[in-house]
Design goal:
The chain has 15 helices and 20 strands. It is of the alpha+beta class. The chain folds into three domains: about 5-110, Rossmann fold (3-Layer(aba) Sandwich), CATH 3.40.50.20; about 140-205, Dna Ligase, domain 1; about 215-450, D-amino Acid Aminotransferase, Chain A, domain 1 (2-Layer Sandwich). The strands form five sheets. An eight-stranded antiparallel β-sheet has the order 13-12-9-10-11-14-19-17, with helices on both faces. The chain has a five-stranded parallel β-sheet with strand order 3-2-1-4-5. The longest helix is centred in the middle third of the chain and has 17 residues, at about 255-270. It is globular, with a radius of gyration of 21 Å. The chain binds ligand MV4. The site of ligand MV4 has 15 residues, from strand 7 and strand 8.
């Protein structure tokens, strides 16, 4: 086994489920030893079986285990781990955790604590982007501390506006305000919701863009300031701010000009904040084709495999090498995306109402064949716990073009068998037969339209 001397000897993975398995696979291919951490109820989990060592870090409740900073740092110290990979969710966007790793002499595999802090302060990030010439949706310059400030911003842009929580993101804690008379009440409700959800009531205001598309750019950067992008992903198929289907390239980015424009804007946004390691710049694309910065996510994302499929780059392996201080191995001109990739998130949820459906898997058959990838940590007999996210598998297909990817996804969805729990497989089958999806004509209102408002 080769192991570049500059790389880490042992990495602790501070996560669970499919992403922990994904990270272990990358470590194995790099010749790096792995340590899994797990909660009381997860000793039979795949991430525990596949790692070289594992440490129990507490009870099932995530606040006492996967979010327990002292327990995780102790696990890293007793196993003599050089670095920690946080995955997504849990502590991945907690700058206190990134700082605590540094203080303990452990490399946090991710961006700088400063990058993470700014990514978590949406009003500030928006303000910085605006000042650095990255287009943002018309609206407030930074936070709106008072209802009067929100009204001033609204008078400039016109109604409707959307109030968003500075500490929010991913859509939680948002309020659409249709007309002037609704602003006062909406402002106080949004403040209260933000305080309850995030412990911070700060808001900012944007003009409301109806029928927007959510398109994001994968960023990859080294510690020397080299920053490039790996193309875009269209994540417009969402329900209650949960992405369900992601693809690359975006069906709207059929023109090379658009692809280059959004990719370059992603890099410009990352440069503006001296971004390091991997991250994602999310944009709103309006029906008239305007591109606006929305937020920056300072972690590896659930949907990273679609970018891996079209670029041929293993984002997790690159992330680890970059965290070890190695320089970027490619220039922008060497990134040549090929074909089309689509990911379906398979959740253990009722397919119509999206209510969690934990329980035992009685029978499992995973699809395969050309151009099919599955990232999962489930197996026959596995009991899906109720305490964690309901994502149980990611089905990723790659084809020479979007039509081949769609046919391949239908074929793979038909092969997929999960007995024992309800899943979102029937939902996905419905989408892949929908004429508007097939035409690539959809936006963030697609699911409400096909499922009826709920
Ligand atoms: C918006 C928007 C319209 N205009 N921002 C942000 C996170 C993403 N999950 C949804 N977000 C939106 N941001 C501006 N300036 C519309 C959405 C949005 C939405 C907002 C409230 C309720 C449901 C929604 C469904 C899709 C998109």
């Amino acid at each position: 086994m080769t192991n570049n001397l500059k790389l880490f000897k042992k990495i602790l993975i501070a996560n669970r489920g499919e992403i922990a398995v994904r990270i272990i696979r990358a470590c194995k291919e790099l010749g790096i030893k792995t340590v899994s951490v797990y909660s009381d109820i997860e000793k039979d989990s795949l991430h525990v079986r596949l790692a070289d060592e594992s440490v129990c870090i507490g009870p099932a409740n995530p606040t006492q285990s996967y979010l327990n900073i002292p327990a995780i740092l102790s696990a890293a110290e007793i196993t003599d781990s050089d670095a920690i990979h946080p995955g997504y969710g849990f502590l991945s966007e907690n700058y206190h955790f990134a700082e605590a790793c540094m203080t303990s002499g452990i490399t946090f595999i991710g961006p700088t604590p400063e990058n993470i802090r700014l990514g978590g302060d949406k009003a500030k990030a928006r303000q910085i982007m605006r000042r650095k010439g990255v287009p943002v949706v018309p609206g407030s310059d930074g936070p709106v501390a008072t209802e009067e400030m929100a009204m001033k911003a609204a008078k400039k842009t016109g109604f409707p506006i959307i109030l968003k929580a500075s500490a929010g993101g991913g859509g939680r804690g948002m309020r659409i305000v249709r007309e002037e008379k609704d602003l006062e009440q909406a402002f106080y409700i949004a403040q209260r919701e933000a305080l309850t959800a995030f412990g911070n009531n700060e808001l900012y205001a944007e003009e409301y863009i109806p029928e927007m598309r959510h398109i994001e750019v994968q960023i990859i950067a080294d510690n020397k300031g080299n920053i490039i992008h790996l193309g875009e992903r269209d994540c417009s198929i969402q329900r209650k701010h949960q992405k369900l289907i992601e693809e690359s390239p975006s069906p709207v980015s059929t023109t090379e000009k658009f692809r280059k424009r959004i990719g370059d804007l992603g890099v410009k946004a990352a440069r503006a904040i001296k971004y390091r390691n991997v991250g994602t710049v999310e944009f709103i694309v309006s029906p008239d084709g305007n591109i606006y910065f929305m937020e920056i996510n300072t972690r590896v994302q659930v949907e990273h495999p679609v970018t891996e499929a079209v670029t041929g780059i293993d984002i997790i392996k690159e992330q680890i090498k970059l965290a070890a201080g190695l320089p970027l191995e490619f220039k922008q001109s060497q990134i040549r995306p090929s074909g089309h990739a689509i990911e379906c998130r398979i959740n253990a949820e009722d397919s119509d109402r999206f209510i969690p459906s934990p329980g035992k898997i009685n029978f499992l058959f995973l699809p395969g064949g050309p151009g099919v990838r599955i990232d999962t940590a489930i197996y026959n007999g596995y009991v899906i716990p109720s305490q964690y996210d309901s994502l149980i598998a990611k089905l990723i297909v790659h084809g020479k073009d979007r039509s081949e990817a769609i046919v391949r996804m239908r074929r793979a969805l038909d092969e997929f068998i999960i007995d024992g729990v309800k899943t979102t497989l029937p939902f996905h089958k419905k989408v892949f037969d929908h004429p508007d999806f097939i035409k690539g004509e959809f936006n963030t209102t697609f699911i409400e339209k096909i499922n009826g408002s709920q």
